[in-house]
Amino acid sequence: MTAVSNQAAAAAAADPARTRHRDLPVTVRAGLYTPEERRRRDGTRWTVVQGILAPVQFLVMAVSVVLVLRFLRTGAGLEAAHVSIVIKTVVLYTIMVTGAIWEKVVFGQYLFAASFFWEDVVSMGVIALHTAYLAGLWLAWPPRALMVLALVAYAAYTVNAIQFVLKLRAARLQEAADRAQGGPMLGAAA
Fold it and tell me: Three-state DSSP class for 80?
């Protein structure tokens, strides 16, 4: 533990308002997961669910981007583009709900756990954009405006996906460093 983390732990202990639960001990994390969080992550089926849904969502988006761009370029395939965006939105909602459950199991709260705070913030923006698309579809906004909105939503989703990929890499690097230092090997998957 470094002097900075010792100071942070002392400050948090001195100011109970800085902790979520006054009766729980203050945990100072050296990486993305504490050993107990890593055990919970590796032991829950929700990790597998997220690992399956994430590439499915990316594949659905890739197909949808092609359909949206085809419509914008040629004017053909509006219905297929709309269906693909609705499917992408349903997959997004599904991965968000299951991800919130995963966060609850691993970190003890449904969203905005310290380790994934900014990913969750950006996820809220992604969900807002996809939901705006659905509202616009229901309100019969012009097709081109809806397609542009979908592309903006997909760009935000791509930023969010990159955030999660970087977190996955950070977790794997943390685990490799722990193994190299002779730390407990609590799981091979991130």
Answer: helix
Residue pair 71/143 in contact (Cβ under 8 Å)? The answer is yes
Q: How many CB atoms lie within 10 A of CB 83?
A: 13
Note the Cα 48 to chain centre separation in Å: 14
Judged against a pLDDT cut of 90, whether residue 147 lies above it is answered with yes
Contact 160, 126 (CB under 8 A): yes
Write down the pTM of the prediction. Answer: 0.75
What distance in Å separates the CA atoms of residue 6 and residue 111, rounded to the nearest whole number?
27
Length of the chain: 190
Tokens of 52: 């399956």
pLDDT 10s digits, 111-145: 998 888 889 999 999 999 999 999 999 999 999 99
Instruction: Kindly tell me the burial class for residue 2, based on how many C-beta atoms sit within 10 Å of its own C-beta (0-12, 13-18, 19 or more).
Output: exposed
Element (H, E) at 85: helix 78-107
- Under a CB-based contact definition with an 8 Å cutoff, are residues 91 and 60 in contact? yes
- Residue of 168, 139, 136, 165 whose CA lies nearest to 153: 136
Please, are residues 123 and 188 in contact by the beta-carbon 8 Å criterion?
no
Q: How far apart are CA 63 and CA 87, in angstroms?
A: 11
Alpha-carbon distances of 57 from 27, 42, 62, 73, rounded to whole Å: 34, 22, 9, 24
Average the pLDDT over 157-182 and give the result.
Answer: 86
